[in-house]
Description:
Blueprint: E1 9-12, H1 15-20, H2 27-43, H3 47-55, E2 61-66, E3 69-74, E4 77-82, H4 86-89, E5 91-94
Parallel strand pairs: 1-5
Antiparallel strand pairs: 2-3, 3-4
Amino acid sequence: xxxxxxxxxxxxxxxxxxxxxxxxxxxxxxxxxxxxxxxxxxxxxxxxxxxxxxxxxxxxxxxxxxxxxxxxxxxxxxxxxxxxxxxxxxxxxxx
Length: 95
């Protein structure tokens, strides 16, 4: 679990993509979700914005599977979360 001080906030313009996070159950399904999320942003020409946020530690990066949990970096801090907790612990909003 991630501490509340490191809450992740991901905003979507498309409800379909937002709903896909509920289908994440392992590393492969997470990678598929994250690739679609990045493609969604690239289609809207905001990848530079995503990279800026990631550099400030606001977007998770460096994903890996560690003992059946998603491991990732937020800024300089390393975190792990159970796949079935991502939709609950990460704040998902639609714009």
